[in-house]
Structure formats: C-alpha cells, structure tokens
Automatic annotation (TrEMBL):
Family that this chain belongs to: Belongs to the monovalent cation:proton antiporter 2 (CPA2) transporter (TC 2.A.37) family.
Domain named Cation/H+ exchanger transmembrane: residues: 11-365
Keyword field: Antiport, Ion transport, Membrane, Transmembrane, Transmembrane helix, Transport
TM stretches of this protein: 12-36, 42-64, 76-94, 100-119, 131-152, 158-179, 200-219, 225-243, 255-273, 285-305, 317-336, 348-369
Full protein name: Cation:proton antiporter
Principal place of residence: membrane
Location in or out of the cell: Membrane
Top-level taxon: Bacteria
Amino acid sequence: MAAPLLRAGVQRVLRVPLIVFEILLGVLLGPSALGWVQPDEVTGVLSDFGVAMLFFLAGNEIDFRGIRGRPLRRAAGGWLVSLAVGVGVGVWIAPSTVTGVFIGVALTSTALGTLLPVLRDEGDLHSPFGRAAAATGAAGEFGPLLAISIFLGGRSPLAGALVLGAFALIAGLAIWLASRGPHPAFNRLTAATLRTSGQFAVRTVIFVVAALSVLSAVLGLDMLLGAFAAGVLCRVLLSGAAPDDREIVDAKLEAVGFGFLVPVFFVMTGVTFDLRALLASPRLLGLMAVALALLLVIRGLPSVVAAPEGSTAADRAALLLFGATGLPIIVAVTGIGVDRGELDSGAAAALVGAGMLSVLIFPALALALRRRSEGGDLVADAEEVPIEG
C-alpha cells in the first residue's frame, strides 16, 4: 500500500517505476534491515503465485498482431545474438561449461512483465516504440524460458526439446481450439456473471493458469512457461467477448495480479535479498557491477536492432536500457543453478543484485530518454507547420 503513495510523492520530481519502491520496501522490511518480515513457506508460495501471475499478465498483454513482422523478427534475432555472446562470455569466465551456460542464459533475459506496466502507465504501449519494446521483452523473456527447458532442465538437450515439443503441442492445440470462436455460450456466461459471485471468466482464467503451470511442472519444465502460455491462451479465448465485457475482465485480472499477487513477488524479492552479505564482500560487489555492465552489453546492445525506423538516438538508448532490464528470469535461472549445485550462491547473489539494480535504474533512465525524444519530436513537428498570414 505504501509503494503507490511513495511513487506519487516522488513522481513530481522523478518518474520511477512502481516496482522500484516494492523491492526497496522489501529490503527495508526484511532481514537485511529492520527484520520485520521473514521469508517462510507461506510467503514463498504467494511469491511463486505472484511471479506466475506476472508472466500470465505479460502473455495476456502482448499484442502478437501488433509486434509480428519486423519488430518480432528483429527482436528474436537480437536475442539469439545475446544468447551466443552471453553463453560465450559465461563459459569463458566460469569454472565449468554448465555454470557458464547458467550465467549466459541469465544475462540474456528481459523483464517483459516489468516493462509492460511501465509502458502502459506512460501511455506508450501501442506506439511504434512501445511495440518494439514489447517485442524485445517477449524475445528476452520467452527465449530464456525455452533455453531453461532445453539446456538447464537436468535432461539431455534432445530429451528437453522433445518434452518442450510435447508441451508446445498441448498448449498450441488449446490456443487453436480457443481461436475457433466466438464461443457464444462462454461469452453469455461471462457477461451474466461479471457482477455476481460467479465470476465465471475470472475463475476460468485462474484455472487455465493453474492447469498450464502444473502441466509444465509435471513435464519438468519451468512453471513460468506454462503461465506465459496461459496468458496467450486466455487472450485468444476472451477475444470473442463483447469489448466492454472483455475490458471488465481484464480489469479484474489486473486487480488480482497487480493489486495482490505480483507486488508480493517484488516485495519478497527484496526481503530475501541478502544485502548484508553483498555489502560485506568487495568481491561480490565487484561481480555485481560486472554483471550489470554485462547486461547492458550482452542484452542491451542487441536489443537496439528492434528499434523502429526513424528512431532517434534517445529512443535507441531507451530501448537498450529497457532490453537490459531483467530480474524474474535471473531469479529463476540462478535458483535452479544453486539447487543443482552448478552455481555458487555468491555468484547467484551478484547476478540477482545486478538484476535488481537493472530494474531500479534502467527503466527510470529509459523513461527520461523517451520523454526527451518525444519532446524533440513535438518541437520538430511544430517547426514543420507552415505559418500563414
């Protein structure tokens, strides 16, 4: 509750994404500072639901028709460059090849679920720049999920690809069936229960998120892959509903996600972050600084290729910063690496710390650059208008 209040107070001076305050408040309340909040099983489960809801909302928010073609093609190509460079750098600096792959995949992520609310709050989500940023985020979030499933799932790459193919077949079939709308019976029941205790559409969505998340977990894939696919499926399923009904359902889902579950994930990210250990080790602080710089180089620079034609230098720099913003995937990849004993906990803390700093710093700088670019565009447009008489 305090996070929006703090943001509203600071917003007069500096535009800072809301999640910055959620993470910082988590650090303040957690064991690293006041010690009022301790991570336990309940907060862990709620945090898992929160990150799943974050990925669902990202999948549900993406307008694939808007980003298909040049934006998505270039964004995917940029991510493949990031993967090749990231794994190469990771293998070079890590003590083993497997550890290097963990580090490389972590450094290729983009926090799409973080960027979309920022772009939407700025009214920039459906502009050419917003579509390019969304495409960059989609590639930087979906690509690492595929890499985790194929290379870091504890199977051989061939077995991982086969399991991933089975999941894609099931999810793709569900999306295909949903697209054969408009499903009049579903839409009628959705409309009839919008303002009753039935809430059929919301219950259906929660069921789909749970079902695909469990399916991905049963298949040994990352749960976030199922949550992301659920977002795409539900967007298609609800596309045949009346526009007003669909808007109400979306508002209810955002209320569940951004009003409850998603903030728990970001707050608990701050709570579980071991700030004292990081500050006590100059080596880890150095690793964190290096990882932050690598995010800019490995993930940020290749993201620029997705910039719309005619983009200003400020727009390209903003897209670089947005592309280098990563946290949820970094948390997921480092968690898997630590659990499997392939990644040192100190290195994991440095990577997560770099991800937190990227979320705290990069979007705010990108917004400032974007506003400067928009201001320049307005001035240029004004200069082109002829003055008569």
